[in-house]
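Hi Q.,

Before the meeting this afternoon, I wanted you to have the magnesium ion prediction in hand. No need to reply - just skim if you have a minute. The sequence and ligand are here:
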Amino acid sequence: MSEAAADGAGQGLPVLALRGVERAYRMGDGRALPVLKGVDLDVYAGEVVGLIGPSGSGKSSLLHAAGLLEHPTRGRVVLTGIEAAELGDRARTRLRLRTVGFVYQFHHLLAEFSALDNVALPLLIAGEGVRTARARAEALLVQLGLGERLTHQPAQLSGGEQQRVAIARAIANRPRLILADEPTGNLDPTTSAAVFQSFYGLARTEGVAALIATHNLELAGYMDRVFALKEGRLEPRPPRRPR
Ligand SMILES: Nc1ncnc2c1ncn2[C@@H]1O[C@H](COP(=O)(O)OP(=O)(O)O)[C@@H](O)[C@H]1O
Ligand SMILES: [Mg+2]
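Predicted structure with the ligand bound:
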């Protein structure tokens, strides 16, 4: 970790460090399709990093490797200082559950549960008491502007509201890292911006590190740092607007 620690002097250990991450897929004819060709990235607590690139450029592949959902073909994934390659399957799963929260383009909320219960559920599964879990869920939903929607079921919420609930759920267990894959991809531009801004505020309050894949360049303008995936590697992009 000495390399990463040196890069991040003054910011502590990165929550996520990627070193030389490569990912190739095996195609039907047996040939390998290289998608990630050597990705290096550090993401620190309290910062929101954007990952842009057209469809097919490898954004999801990168998030899956970073979130320990898939093994990279080559390279290192270090989460909270822990080298993922050195872990067995169970330890790896435990590290993922403890450290990472995921937000997807489609919310995957449980239809029969209220907004509040959707957010409280991961806390209950993690062994939190009912009262504490519900209090935390309510506080998060209030922070995301859903104080009047606690008992609504997903079908009774707008698309933007559903995504806010999904964000609250991802952050409920106090993960150190949020990985979001096109979290506003199915929302209109105005709603996207509003959802993103409340996410940004919450990430800041919670001190969580976030890596967000988006093809929405407008949104990328709000991130602390932005990288474009180009030919399997990351290129830094200047943020378009000062925050
Ligand atoms: N499981 C897979 N098997 C084979 N090819 C894949 C698989 N997953 C993704 N790919 C290919 O990898 C490339 C990058 O995919 P992806 O990471 O989903 O990109 P993005 O999220 O930027 O759209 C695409 O060309 C896609 O077809
Ligand atoms: Mg994708």
